[in-house]
Amino acid sequence: MRGLKDKVVLVTGGASGIGKATALRFAEEGAKVVIADFADGLEVVNAMKAKNVEALYVQVNVTDTDSVAAMAAKAIETFGRIDVLVNNAGITKDSMMKKMTKETWDAVIAVNLTGVFNCTAAVLPQMLQQQSGVVLTASSVVGLYGNMGQANYAATKWGVIGMTKSWAKEMAKNGLRFNCVAPGFIGTDMVRKIPEQVLKEKILVKVPAGRLGEPEEVAALYAFLASDDAKFINGAVISVDGACTI
Predict the structure, then answer these.
(1) Other Cβ atoms closer than 10 A to 132
(2) Would residue 222 show up in a list of annotated catalytic residues for this protein?
(3) What is the DSSP track for 194-246?
(4) Which of 63, 3, 67 is CA-nearest to residue 30?
(5) Does the structure show a pLDDT above 90 at 1?
(6) Do residues 68 and 118 make contact, with C-beta atoms less than 8 angstroms apart?
(7) What whole-number distance in Å separates Cα of residue 93 and Cα of residue 75?
């Protein structure tokens, strides 16, 4: 992708799943990568360094503003700037509404919605100073269309779309871009642990493509949206779902 070499890319939730695939894709494109995760990301960083990629792991709790501020400060201290933020960190705590507790609701809102606000707010001063930057946020087809038992998750994934569109309107004049990616059924390690029969009868029947998506296919979209090839795409929501929502 044009314009990604030597860019500094910060990926939250970058230690596993789509986040890991995204971090690795940016590394392949020649970027300098910061993996920020509550889980241990040193294994991924060391694998990158073995391939002469400049990489850094920072442990972060996206719900804690001090932790997020320290994350951004460490990235800037190490690499001097932040060009791309990928807001990938997220959790699920599924429950039908009639059984959903306030604690379950609050936990998902804190990570998936407030966490995106926290991380974006932390990198924003640097991006505004640079007069350049790209913020990409993980939404979901669940955010666009809802899903049984996921009212809390859907609320956050719809909410980040609203924030993204608002930020794009506010800061396009400052040289910043904000976009959302909405994955469908993606074959992360967690999804692949679902029994094959359940996958076949409950999930794959909803996907006209007839298969799960790959984390690398979502990562490819993140890389494109961060690149100069997408420099006039701002405030968009793009699905990666094998046509399951049409």
Answers:
(1) 14
(2) no
(3) S-HHHIIIIIGGG-TT-S-B-HHHHHHHHHHHHSGGGTT--S-EEEESTTTT-
(4) 3
(5) no
(6) yes
(7) 30
pLDDT digits (tens, 9 = 90+) for 203-213: 888 899 989 99
- Could you report the per-residue pLDDT of 46-104, keeping only the tens digit for each? 999 999 999 999 999 999 999 999 999 999 999 999 999 999 999 999 999 999 999 99
Average pLDDT on 147-155 reads: 94
Supply 126's token pair.
């640097």
User: Which one of 57, 145, 153, 222 is the catalytic residue?
Assistant: 153
How far apart are alpha carbons 178 and 143 in whole angstroms? 17
φ, ψ of residue 181 to 5 degrees: the values are: -115, 130
* Contact yes or no for 116/160 (Cβ under 8 A): yes
Mean pLDDT, range 224-235, rounded to an integer: 98
Q: Which residues touch 115 (CB under 8 Å, ≥6 apart)?
A: 12, 62, 63, 68, 87, 89, 90
- What phi and psi values does residue 131 have, to the nearest 5 degrees? 60, 35
**Domains parsed from the chain with CATH numbers:** 8-240 (3.40.50.720)
Name the pLDDT band for 201 (thresholds 50, 70, 90): confident
